[in-house]
UniProtKB/TrEMBL annotation:
EC number of the protein: 6.3.4.13
Family that this chain belongs to: Belongs to the GARS family.
Keyword Cytoplasm part of the UniProt annotation: no
Organism: Allorhodopirellula solitaria
Protein name according to UniProt: Phosphoribosylamine--glycine ligase
Gene3D superfamilies: 3.40.50.20, ATP-grasp fold, A domain, ATP-grasp fold, B domain, Phosphoribosylglycinamide synthetase, C-terminal domain
Highest taxon of source: Bacteria
Record-level Gene Ontology MF annotations: ATP binding; metal ion binding; phosphoribosylamine-glycine ligase activity
Catalytic activity line of the entry: 5-phospho-beta-D-ribosylamine + glycine + ATP = N(1)-(5-phospho-beta-D-ribosyl)glycinamide + ADP + phosphate + H(+)
Listed cofactors: Mn(2+); Mg(2+)
One Pfam family matching this protein: GARS_C
Gene assigned in the entry: purD
Keyword Ligase: yes
Pathway info: Purine metabolism; IMP biosynthesis via de novo pathway; N(1)-(5-phospho-D-ribosyl)glycinamide from 5-phospho-alpha-D-ribose 1-diphosphate: step 2/2
Amino acid sequence: MTSYNVLIVGSGGREHALAWKIRQSPRVDQVFVAPGNAGTGADAVNVDIAQDDHEALIAFAKSNDVGLVVVGPEAPLVAGLVDDMQAAGLKVFGPSRAAAELEGSKVFCKNLLRSADIPTADYRTFRSADDAMRYIKDRYSEPNDPVNVVVKADGLAAGKGVVVCTTRSEALEAIDRIAARKEFGAAGKELIIEERLTGPEVSVLAITDGETILTLPTAQDHKPAHDGDRGPNTGGMGAYSPAAVLDEQTLAEVESGILVPVVHAMKRARRPFKGVLYAGLMLTPAGPKVLEFNVRFGDPECQPLLMRLQTDIVDVMEATVDGRLGELDELTFDPRPGICVVMASEGYPASYDKGHTITGIDAADAMTDVKVFHAGTGVADGKVVNTGGRVLGVTAMGDTISAAKLQAYKAVAQIRWQGAWCRKDISDKALTAAQ
């Protein structure tokens, strides 16, 4: 059995969960994370290299017996880190720059979905704020006229470039923020206005080598900041797996009507997809429809999924890179549900203070079936401090959703820092669906 070192690129909760899971493989000698956070520094070895410094990452991998590189976040994937590393002779898990455009450009994604006849919301694309505003004004005459649209920045905006609008004035304000004021930078060079779909949201993640598709257990994210799905959108305030809102028959429909066609469409477009394919779906009265595609593990969906995964993840990643995923046995998962509760900094998703000392992580980690995954943390004067908006992903498992939720929030209660907060209703949708 060949063993080697693994380099994970990124610094969030997803990357900590990946480091924790990869470290469990008997085939791995050492796990490096660049640049990492306080949690990856405890569970692996942090490397002080930014995720956009391709040359330095390649040089480190070549000089440290790195046999597999795992690129966690979307930004380096869209920037072509996988291509650069492969050109340097490294084995890398993740899609190419061309394939990553499925997430890097919502316009590209929507056009691909339309051409492949994959169900999604009706939409229009715009290159200027004036044209988009004219489109809204032509259809709604009064400021408080009810509208039913979603305004989306074309490019990457850390999960925040999507605005759900219920009035004409909200739609115009969203267009102004994205396309005129460029609140999300270059991500707003184009925008999409699409119909607002209704129904429960669910995430279906699959691992594919471009030929074989291995669908993972379902998960449900909680994007809005506050309980009851109120407040502004965030990068995700918590998730649970499996998602009770998606039954086996509907999952089979998603596989045959969405996942398989999109993998074929990417192949036809000469952008073969290898890595994690993440479908964000709305379960509408007319059936599942695609809200978005991501090209990596979701964060925080990754945390409960990897906590449940029992198959050696390194075997799966290697087979994906080598194009032999079809040779693997079916993946095995702990049948118990898992829940991740995100603890955030005061003010998130707007501005927030950093540098507050965090206590109680060790006490939470010591609890049965609990793991605290770090996202926006660092170390100052030997103490763990908050450095980001989403700070920790407190993840727990239990025999039932209710038991997992209770254990997760007991662990949350152990942790303190100035201004810490979280949603209190993560996974309640599962109980509602069951009823």
